[in-house]
Amino acid sequence: MAANQETTLASVVSDRLLSIADYQRPFAWGDKQLTDLWEDLDLMGSDGQHYFGTLVLRETADENGRPLTSVDAAGQTLRHTEVIDGQQRLTSCILLLDRARRRLERLAADGVDGARAVADHLRRAFGVVLVDGAPVPRLQLGVELNGFWVDIALGDEVFLGQVLLTGQQRLEEAIKFFDQKLDQLIAGIEGQVALDRIRDLQRRVTSGLRVLVYEVVTSAEVGVIFETLNERGRPLTELEKTKNYLLYLARQIPDRRSDDLASIINVRWSEIFASLAQQDPGMEEQVLRVHWLVTQDPDQRLWQGVGSIKARFDRARYVPASARLGSTPEPVDSGDDEFGTLYSDLKDYVSTLHQCAQLFAEMFDPNGRFAALGSSRPSVLGASASLLRTNVLAPFRPLLCAARLAYPTDGAFYSLLVEHLERYSARVMVICGRRTNAGRSKLNSLAHSLYSRTMSQENILSTVRVLIWRYASDDAVREALESQSENWYERSGHKYFLYEYELALMGAGQIIPAFAEFTTKGNEKRTTEHILPQHPNEDARCWWDRFTPDEHVALRHSLGNLVLTLDNSSYSNKCFDAKRGRPMGPGEETITCYAQSSLHQERELATFSDWTPATIRQRQLHLTEWALGRWAVEAPGLTVLEDEDEDIENDDDV
User: How far is residue 321's CA from residue 325's CA, in Å, rounded to a whole number?
Assistant: First the structure.
């Protein structure tokens, strides 16, 4: 398959008779696609160009393999050509030109000089030509539609049937759409100006729309190409679509700034993709969304992906009025300010998006460089590691990105912010069990305010504390932690809670295995120990003499009965005395027991002489008091949030 250079619609049609095979779907463009086409033409400019897509063509041959050709009444040889892909846009453009031709004929009937010649040219070049004395359409549709296309869409007959086929109905709707647009284009103006406007539209369609033509050689290749075009593989991501749209906008700038901006976009995007290469596939969309919430609009309900970006950078804002369809040409360049604004707007957007992507990569790296934060880096790394261990990061990304974008070198503030957000995650999500969208709307609003500097750093932090207290007051935290019936074992956050407790028990210079050692797939169950076994043996008097069946069911998964361990398989269903063991004596070999564990919280269990409902309660109360100190938040007094900032519990999780 050979690819020609980008060319015009006029060049494609000039020496061909085109046909659409019956196996292809009928005409299917609706209002959205037609509106997009009209807007492309409107915003193109009188001398502009717009890439319109791809056409895949194949010259048809006779039974001997010779190319089929015809000669029209003017003596031009026309190649019979099948349209493999691009039939929707091709059909729409030819239909639009034919509807314009009808307006030209009316102008000619009203005596407007030059209208007849233009109308006749459009009819021959894009509508119908004479071959051996018979009219032949430049474009022939499939059998199902061709009669309607030739007689009614391109001709002057009236449809007398009772029911329109789907493709026929679409063609009829397209006719009405183009008729309305053309009537609006020339409404209320005198004949010569109307002619100029239609000729401007004609130029935009026939010469301004640029297509890339692929020539298919063999019939076998047709099947392969057709299958490929209908199953194109992985769709473009939102990030890729955004890049393509920004590059399209850059091409609208009529001077050297166009190439400069395109170069910036290409370089920054390659760096964005590199920054996110090691992240989950969905992280690209997360970056786009978070960046938008921070820099543009914090209302997540209004986020429409690349649609929001197109609305923000609506190309119509940057096209001077004199370049629009139906405008009166002006002698001076009125578009310089618009294009200057476009250039600066896009540079700012791309720059901050690039920074946001780099910050995302750093957030997820336990050994992130955080080079710009200087001496605060150790505290930032410590706070960030704790926040990562909560496994709840999504609702806080906008605020974290905003802090780095607005105050890129303020490590002290960033460290405080991360500590606040870890308390938020620990108290609200891990302990009180709220959904990850609790307070999300307000957090997004805070991020936007922080980025735009409409709230001070202290006000941001104090508002975060108020939010924490709203969703997880000390009373709520205490109630959740002291529950004797809560199944903490099934909550993924129990490992984070117990890991932080272990860190609190450690002395200076002591080492603990990495958190991943306790959470990596395959290690989940062997690294959490039920002190009271989940399934004691039926004859284990050491357990059943201390716990009733109801107490066993209620307490076995409670927080007070769980402890981190490096291998609980050795403990199994043993009695507490065997699990507790004793410190290793001189010359004795190490055995697996709480007293000889490398983990402080297991050694702490060895201080209990027995394990009963009362001791589970005692340990649980101890963990509660420790947690209220570890994740302490000052009560906000009389501070309240506005009614509209109340939590939206039915928001989708991020």
Answer: 9
Q: Cβ–Cβ contacts within 10 Å for residue 107, how many?
A: 21
Assign 593 to helix, strand or coil: coil
SS (H, E, C) 301-340: HHCCCHHHHHHHCCHHHHCCHHHCCCCCCCCCCCCHHHHH
> Is the separation of the CB atoms in 534 and 490 below 8 Å?
no
Q: Given the structure tokens 């809670």, which residue do they identify? A: 497
Cα dihedral sign, 288-290-292-298: positive
Domain positions in the chain are 2-230, 238-363, 371-473+637-645, 481-630
Burial of 625 (0-12, 13-18, 19+ CB in 10 A): exposed
Contact 302/308 with Cβ under 8 angstroms? yes
**Whole-angstrom distance, CA of residue 478 vs CA of residue 628:** 8
Taking the C-alpha atoms of residue 434 and residue 558, their distance in angstroms, rounded to an integer, is 18
Q: In this structure, are strands 69-71 and 50-59 parallel, antiparallel, or unpaired?
A: unpaired
Torsion of CA 532, 534, 540, 546, to 10 degrees: 40
Integer Cα distance of 451 and 443 in angstroms: 12
Q: What is the pLDDT of residues 54-69, one digit of tens each?
A: 888 888 888 887 889 9
What is the mean pLDDT for each group of 10 consecutive residues in the chain (654 residues)? Answer: 73 92 84 91 82 86 85 90 91 95 94 94 92 90 88 88 86 95 92 93 93 74 51 66 86 83 90 83 88 96 92 83 71 57 92 92 81 90 93 94 95 96 97 94 97 96 95 96 90 94 91 90 82 94 96 95 90 93 86 93 95 96 97 77 42 40
CA 366/CA 387 separation, integer angstroms:
10
- Contact, 397 vs 286, CB < 8 A? yes
DSSP state of 60: -
Q: Is 326 left (phi over 0), alpha (psi -120 to 50) or beta?
A: left
**Bridging pattern class, strands 139-140 and 134-137:** unpaired
Retrieve residue 440's tokens. Answer: 């999300």
Phi-psi region of 267 (alpha: psi -120 to 50; beta: other; left: phi over 0): alpha
Q: Rg of the chain's alpha carbons, rounded to an integer?
A: 36
554-574: per-residue pLDDT in tens?
A: 999 999 999 999 888 889 899
pTM: 0.75
CA torsion sign for 449, 450, 453, 458 is positive
Token output for 113? 């000089």
Q: CA-CA distance, 18 to 83, in Å (whole number)?
A: 7
End-to-end CA distance of the chain: 45
Question: What amino acid is encoded at 354 in this protein?
Answer: H
Residue 230 in contact with residue 294, Cβ under 8 Å? no
Cα(335)–Cα(137) distance, integer angstroms: 41
**What is the dihedral sign for C-alpha 474, 477, 481, 482?**
positive
User: Burial level of 318, CB count in 10 A (0-12/13-18/19+)?
Assistant: buried
Residue with tokens 């993709």: 273
Structure tokens of 96?
A: 């639009």
DSSP category for residue 595: G
Spatial neighbors of 53 by CB under 8 A, at least 6 apart, are 86, 89, 211, 212
- What distances in angstroms separate CA 79 from CA 22, 60, 73, 147, 295, one per listed residue? 19, 8, 15, 22, 54
Q: Which two tokens stand for residue 281?
A: 């596939």
128: β partners: 137
Q: Which amino acid is at 268?
A: R
